[in-house]
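Quick one, C-alpha cells below. Sequence please?
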C-alpha cells in the first residue's frame, strides 16, 4: 500500500477444506472486505490531510502533509481472488497461468514492453550464477560494494559502476529475482541474492499460534 501503482492478486488457499458453495461465498466476502478497507484508508488519509491543513500552524506540518499526500497517491489495483488447493498440482499450475496472464497485460504493467539494455541481462545472468555457486553462503546475503567488485571481475562488466548496478538491482528487485531494501538505512548496503532464505526466516518467526508455542516452553 506504500508502493505507487501496485497490482495485487489475492490468493485464497485451503480450498480442500471448504465446500464449493463456501469457496464462492468466502471469495466474495474477501473481495468486499478489501474494497471496504481501501475506501476506509482513502477516507482516513483525506481526514488526516484536512486536519493538518486546517491546523493553526500548518507550516509546521508540511513534511507530514506531503508524506500523507504521497501515500494518498499510491493507488492499488486489486485483481480477482484466485482460490487454490495447494495440495493439487493442477491448481498450482492454474495459479501460475493466471499470474503470467496478468503480468503480460500491458495496461497493468506498462514496463512489460520496455526494452532493457544488454547490461541488465548480463548482470542478471552473473547474479544467477553467483547465487547458485557452491561458494555462496546459505543465507545468500552480500554486501553491495562486494557484489559490485565480484561482478566487475566479469570481462563484459568491467566498466560497471555503482549507480548503474543500483538501477539494475531495482529492476531485479521488482521482478523478484533478488531483494534489496535500499530504503531501509540498516539494509541499504545488503543485497539478498536468495530471497527464499528470507521466506524461511519469516516462516520461523511469523507463524500460527507462535505466542502459545513459546509460552509452552518451560
Amino acid at each position: 500500500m506504500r508502493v505507487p501503482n501496485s497490482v495485487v492478486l489475492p490468493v485464497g488457499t485451503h480450498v480442500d477444506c471448504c465446500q464449493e458453495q463456501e469457496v464462492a461465498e468466502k471469495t466474495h466476502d474477501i473481495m468486499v472486505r478489501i474494497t471496504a478497507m481501501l475506501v476506509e484508508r482513502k477516507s482516513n488519509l483525506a481526514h488526516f490531510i484536512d486536519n493538518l491543513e486546517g491546523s493553526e500552524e500548518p507550516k509546521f506540518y508540511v513534511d507530514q502533509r506531503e508524506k500523507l499526500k504521497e501515500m494518498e497517491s499510491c493507488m492499488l489495483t486489486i485483481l480477482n481472488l484466485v482460490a487454490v488447493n495447494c495440495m493439487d498440482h493442477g491448481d498450482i499450475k492454474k495459479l501460475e497461468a493466471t499470474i503470467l496472464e496478468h503480468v503480460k497485460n500491458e495496461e497493468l504493467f506498462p514496463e512489460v514492453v520496455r526494452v532493457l539494455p544488454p547490461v541488465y541481462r548480463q548482470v542478471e545472468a552473473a547474479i544467477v550464477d553467483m547465487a547458485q555457486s557452491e561458494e555462496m553462503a546459505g543465507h545468500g546475503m552480500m554486501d553491495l560494494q562486494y557484489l559490485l567488485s565480484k561482478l566487475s571481475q566479469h570481462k563484459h562488466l568491467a566498466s560497471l559502476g555503482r549507480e548503474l548496478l543500483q538501477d539494475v538491482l531495482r529492476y531485479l528487485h521488482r521482478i523478484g529475482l533478488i531483494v534489496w531494501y535500499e530504503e531501509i538505512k540498516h539494509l541499504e548496503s545488503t543485497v539478498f541474492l536468495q530471497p527464499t532464505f528470507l521466506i524461511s526466516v519469516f516462516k520461523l518467526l511469523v507463524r500460527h499460534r507462535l505466542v502459545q508455542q513459546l509460552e509452552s516452553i518451560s
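The helical segments are 20-53, 62-72, 89-103, 118-132, 144-151, 162-174, 195-205, 210-215. The chain has a mean pLDDT of 87.
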